[in-house]
Amino acid sequence: MTQDFMEELWQDFILEAGEYVSMVRDVLGDPAAVRDPKRLEEAYRALHNMKGASQAVGYLKVSTLCQAMESVVSAAKRGGLSLETPHILTLGSALDSLSRLIQGEELNVGDLLKALKDLAEGRQVDVPSPSAPRAPQGETPPPGEPVAPADQPDRQPSPPAPQGSDTVRVRFSQVEELSMLLEDLIPLVLYAARKAEDLNQAAKGQAGNLRHLRELTKGLLEDVGSIDRSVKNLLDKVRQLSMLSASGLLRYLKEAASSLAIKTQKELWVSVSGGDVRLDRNVMESLKEPLVHLVRNSVDHGIEPPQDREASGKPRVGNLEIEISASGSVGILTVRDDGRGIDPRRLKQRALKDRLITPEEAEAMSDQEATELIFRSGFSTADRVTDVSGRGIGMSIVKETVERLGGSIRVESQVGHGTCFTLEFPVTMRTYQGVLVAAGGHLFSLPSSSVECSIRIERSPHPGMIRVKDRHLPLVPLGDLLSLKDGTSSKGSRPVAVVISSSGSSVAIQVDQVLGVHEGILKPLGEFLGKVRFFQGGVLLGNGSVVPVLNPSDLADSSPHGSSAGQGAQADQGPKRILVVEDSVTSRALLRNLMTSLGYQVTTAADGQEAWEVISRDPHHLVITDVEMPRMDGFELTRRIKGSPALRSIPVILVTSLESPEDVQRGIEAGADAHVPKGSFDQGRLTSLVSDMLG
């Protein structure tokens, strides 16, 4: 057999095996199915087929593990074994190991094989780790674990590509390159259309001898229209090449939920729908991991243990529904559970305890605003950090990712009855529709998906507020918000308010004019700029100018009823002051220069003791500190700051090489507001945190 043939065979196996793993996980994740002989038969056949396929391509460990799992399922299918929690947990661990082996990882499955054998023979076992490392080279393999022959090692094939009679294999990078080339044609069409229109206007009203010129310009305009339609049709066809079915994403989320349910010993039925919806590959890749955060959060925090559900009059088995749909160019994903729901009073109490809000802010918060606290970075209701939750960053990552794509997220919850998250996002990252506005002599674009309406501003008895239908909303002048030189001036006419909504919050943005709706290609800011508050990219207009695209979430947070960071930005005049505490000269210089470049006034200290002396006599707006330092470490410095009535409101960010869950927990207990690891130092995340905390 040729190498090319074997490569195709391996790819087919990975695709087929993934489907078999999903089938088995569906059965194990359904408490009713593990007691239904017909459903157990489905799992048994899936394992049997996977065993045969793995033998054909030389995946001996996969074959052996499938055989051991078959024995357990077979005993249950015959009625000789009842699948209880230890059995399901062990089978779930084996299934996780199967997934990793199929993808080419090297694992030592000896403990799993022994545990499965004991279970099949009716002996009690401890649940083994699903990810035990490979035995060191030269070590004797565990008894019963076959060794792959030297001339037939376990394979490590490349990821699979779907094949079929009506498909062709194309590298994604080539599709991206072709798409970008087509995008570059659009400005040329816009320029030609503008010139043709100018010629047409010049020809109007002239003498009869210019009739031929008018006919030429009219023909030019028609030609430009045809080119425009052809380019857009071609671009749509190319974009479709990079559009993928959402079924793979749904399967991935379902497996993540079912796996966690098994791990946390919860009984859960997971249903998915919308697999026929097609999404841009870039959108899907961007959303995948944040959505796993969201789904795992629903299982871990939302779904109650079976005994708790029964005690409250609910069925033992919880329900989690994941649905994807599309309306035009907007994708909609909902994650709905029937769990304990979100208690806004408990969230307020926890936020007060963690000093994320003041008592005055808590008093003024509505239940919906309190529920939105779950999206704040550093906020968590977990009492301890685990590998599932407790760090307070998962939900903030979900919100940041969706908004970076130009979408929004909202949450609805009822205590005792469940929670529903709804995400809206573009099905492709390239198409952009916006509302063009003018303020302070400059042009800006607002994403159409976030704009509710625009109204003329009438005189209001409540300064800083505006009545929109039956609501009173904060009114924020865009020119003042962006510190434009000319401010926001109506130039003799009444200014306009554009009402925008983001993540459940609405605000009216005062501008000079609304110039209409436009379409274009949204270009992100890029890695050099990272996150800049109020902006998410730029869009090219027909006259060749680039217009900044505003970030609806930042605008909503800037209102007097938004985040404390937004209030601080309005109230404080002059640069905010940051204390950087770091014993490494290089790291101290890096942080100082980074914060200075953002416009902050920076003071430095070489250790915690020096920092405490500085901040005791001269309070700053924020502290960025290392942990491991002489005389006084960062944990102790944080405890002292948070223990001082005069200083406790100062945010503290830990930037440290200590990244273990225990160290993160120590930082939380000390009162730190955020934790940024040095090992994977993310400059954009640090600047975003500082911006969110200070404005």
From TrEMBL:
Matching Gene3D superfamilies: 3.40.50.2300, Histidine kinase-like ATPase, C-terminal domain (3.30.565.10), HPT domain (1.20.120.160), SH3 Domains (2.30.30.40)
EC code: 2.7.13.3
Superkingdom of origin: Bacteria
GO MF, one annotated term: protein histidine kinase activity
Modified residues (4-aspartylphosphate): D626
HPt domain location: 2-105
Histidine kinase domain: residues covered: 214-429
Annotated region described as Disordered, given as residue ranges: 124-168, 552-576
Residues found modified as Phosphohistidine: H48
Catalytic activity: ATP + protein L-histidine = ADP + protein N-phospho-L-histidine
GO biological process: chemotaxis; phosphorelay signal transduction system
Domain Response regulatory intervals: 577-693
Matches recorded under PROSITE patterns: CHEW, HIS_KIN, HPT, RESPONSE_REGULATORY
Keywords: Kinase, Phosphoprotein, Transferase
PANTHER family per record: CHEMOTAXIS PROTEIN CHEA, SENSOR HISTIDINE KINASE CHEA
Name listed for the protein in its UniProt record: histidine kinase
Organism this protein belongs to: Thermanaerovibrio acidaminovorans (strain ATCC 49978 / DSM 6589 / Su883)
